[in-house]
Amino acid sequence: MTAHTHRAEEIDLQLHRPHSARMYDYLLGGRTNYPVDREAALRATEGWPALPRAARLNRAFLHRAVHHLVNDVGIRQFLDIGTGIPTSPNLHEVAQYHHPGARVVYVDNDPIVLAHARALLTSTPEGRTAYVDGDLRRPADILEASELAETLDLSEPVALTIIATVHFVPDHYDPYGAVRTLIDALPVGSHLLLSHATPDFTPEAISRAVAAYHAGGIEAQVRSHAEILPFFDGLELLPPGLTLITDWRPQHTDIGDDVANGDVSFYGALARKN
Fold first, then answer.
1. pLDDT 10s digit of each residue in the chain, 274 long?
2. Cα–Cα–Cα angle for 225, 231, 234, nearest 5°?
3. Complete domains list, the chain, with CATH
4. Which of 16, 66, 69, 201 is in Cβ range 3.0-4.6 Å of 75 for a Cys bridge?
5. C-alpha count within 13 angstroms, C-beta hemisphere, residue 241
């Protein structure tokens, strides 16, 4: 079963300006992007040449973590904030491969993502997916969405996944408070999975990439390890803690295992609500 909020035909895709979701799609080798997005992504990549590789490594981190959450932790429900353009395998495809009854609510405020939301709603018959037109900066609206209530059972544990999203939410929006609001609404046994870009290893290159996003009118704020850690306040960080995404339960991938820290520049972690 599926659900979503608006008709794609009514959406203004804002093709006159670059979009972070379409830029990410281009970096992953997707086709749902336009010249303005490709130009902005290329400018960011000129500043930080490892950006496309880091995007793929971040995607691999998500897949490993969902596999772990379903098979080792027993999670059956996911609330995914900042979903991005559908890139198969999507989160629900990975989760439902391991447990067909898994349920996923996708949340994004990008018009291009909403236009392609139907690709996110191809659930197994046993499971369920839904799409909410929502924004991390307004967590109460997400929690009040009828699609969430109709899809997830908030008396049972939920994995809140926020992958490569919070660095597009500068401090003046209080992203720490937003994440805390979402976690507070979830029951004991729920988990937070989060990844975030960092300048800790190649600050000049990351600064150039951020400047390219800013030049395209996209807000962005990368954070240090010490600045990312508070997103997990009050939660139990699970081994190996907040670490480079390539060091989080690593597996051999077709990208290769020999990756310099500066070519990754993303931290990630999984934490449990006790």
1. 444 444 434 556 667 789 898 899 999 888 888 999 999 999 999 999 999 999 999 999 999 999 999 999 999 999 999 988 877 788 999 999 999 999 999 999 887 788 777 777 788 999 999 999 999 999 999 999 999 999 999 999 999 999 999 999 999 999 999 999 999 999 999 999 999 999 999 999 999 999 999 999 999 999 999 999 999 999 999 999 999 999 999 876 545 557 889 899 999 999 999 9
2. 120
3. 2-250+257-272 (3.40.50.150)
4. 69
5. 6
Task: Look up residue 150 and give its two tokens.
Answer: 């109709």
Whole-angstrom Cα distance, residue 262 to residue 216?
24
Residue type, 113: V
Peptide bond into 100 cis (omega under 30): no
Burial class (CB in 10 A: 0-12, 13-18, 19+), 36: middle
Element containing residue 89 per DSSP (H, E): none
> Which tokens belong to 184?
């507070």
